[in-house]
Amino acid sequence: MRVIIGLEIHCQLATESKLFCKDSTLPAEPNTNVCPICLGFPGYKPKVNKKAIDYGIMVALALNCKINKSMFFSRKSYFYPDMPKNYQITQYEIPLAIDGFLEVGDSKIRIKRIHLEEDPGKLVHVGGDITSAKYVLVDYNRAGVPLLEIVTEPDFTSPKQVREFLEKLSSILEHLGVYDSSREASLRVDANISLEGGERIEIKNISGFADVEKALSYEIVRQKGLLRMNVKVERETRHYDAERKITKSLRKKEYEEDYGYIFDPDLPKIEITDSWIEQIKEKMPELPDERVKRFVKVYSLPEIQARVLIYTDKYLADFFEECCKIYENPLEVSKWIITYLLKSLNWHHMSIRQSSIKPKEFVELLELIDNGIITERYAKELIKEYVDTGISPKKIVEKKLIRLDDFQLEKIVEEVIRENSEAVEDFKRGETKAIEFLIGRVLIKTNKQADPKRIREILLKKI
Asked: Is the CB of residue 302 less than 8 Å from the CB of residue 309?
């Protein structure tokens, strides 16, 4: 049974001020970044933030869209406590851009439309979630923050494909500099899903790409179960409960005509000229696919490594390039970032931006290995402490390193042989694994700072 999925992606644009007023978009105490315009006071007129339109045009170009030369804003009327005016200023009849696409693997996902709108406020559910909270608080700081909504055609056939698309889209948006992925709810997804021939279900406001994949996977199982029991799937809006990993019904689905769109009389039509578009094109930064090709060509990286660096996090790729300016072996830098640094960052649930890791200090680690001051085995442990504490590798080594000459190492090896006579006898009987055990005991006594190859040589000589 074919799965049909389409997405509505809401991206908070990283402008300094809101879409129709001068209030800051930065995090602040609740209900402090507000004014009569974004609170909808009578008589106060909105003014369009040109930077938001610039960002929208940039995204439209990156997603291969046709930009409408004339556009306007409409009022979308609905009545929720997070909507101070009881309508949202958005685009409906003529959006900013249409008919684009983004290639993901061997598939081309069509972009139906891209439009600008203002974000509603934020509801804070106290003592539960959206369906079980004891009461709800409203923070209007977010009301009026510029949103770019990217609507796809229903071209996705699996939750995994959706996640790959979102990861690529997020990387493009980061490279364009139009959004800040570290901000709460900076990218939210409404996912529409149906099984072929069945009604469409909308899952609202999912944050996190892993949660989008899980919500869609659950919904496929739920809908298939209903159909097996000959129960009709009704069109509705559902909420994803991330803790229980299930979707729950919120309300019957509204239709577009329910919103009563009207042209906003306080805002003019906006003409987007060819020269305006050309100015944006000239400022367009390097996009992820282009950057992958450059990493392969300039740094001689395997394509898979280049993709991991770039698509995991734009700032991780920036970090890699900064390291390469001061260390002449890009392959080694890439290996240590992908295999060890990224693993430690993930363990701490942080990105490179959230950590205190610096390119110069990270390169210190590689130079300590090159100069024979520490072994690779010890460096793998040291990098964990570096991520955890932010203390530079050189300082950690100065504080902890026990410098061992061959005489000292031989004494430790002799001690291990005396303490582990059974393992020694096992090795003499041909059990080769016993030598690995003995090497491990020596490494423990040397705080993993001795060279395993040298330990093996001394053990074989002494046994």
From this structure: no
Q: Which residue has the tokens 């061959």?
A: 406
* Amino acid found at 306: A
The 10s digit of each residue's pLDDT in 58-95 is 999 999 999 999 999 999 998 888 999 999 999 999 99
Amino acid at 196: E
Q: In sequence order, what are the beta bridge partners of 431?
A: none
C-alpha distances out from residue 101 to 97, 152, 238, Å = 12, 8, 27
Architecture label for domain 406-462: Orthogonal Bundle (1.10)
Residue reference for tokens 């315009």: 37
Q: In degrees, to the nearest 5, what angle opens at C-alpha 107 toward C-alphas 106 and 109?
A: 155
Residues in the chain: 463
Domain residue ranges of the chain, discontinuous segments joined by +: 3-279, 286-400, 406-462
Backbone φ and ψ of 192, nearest 5°: -105, 125
Statement: the pTM of the whole predicted model exceeds 0.70: yes
Note whether 84 and 121 are within 8 A (CB).
yes
Please give the single-letter amino acid code of residue 249.
Answer: S
DSSP of 157-184: -SHHHHHHHHHHHHHHHHHHT---TTST
CA distance 259 to 373: 69
Kindly state the tokens that stand for 364: 């210190």
Distance CA 166, CA 163 (A): 5
Question: Residue 329, by phi and psi: left (phi above 0), alpha (psi -120 to 50) or beta?
Answer: beta
The DSSP bridge partners found for residue 113 are 98, 151
H/E/C letters for each residue in 310-332?
A: HHHCHHHHHHHHHHHHHCCCHHH
- What angle in degrees, to the nearest 10, is found between the helix axes of 314-326 and 159-176? 50
pLDDT, tens digit, 9 for 90 and up, residues 208-261: 899 999 999 999 999 999 989 988 898 999 999 988 999 999 887 666 667 789
Phi, psi angle pair for 13, to nearest 5°: -75, 140
Token digits of residue 196: 């072929």
Residue pLDDT, tens place only, 343-375: 999 999 999 999 999 999 999 999 989 987 777
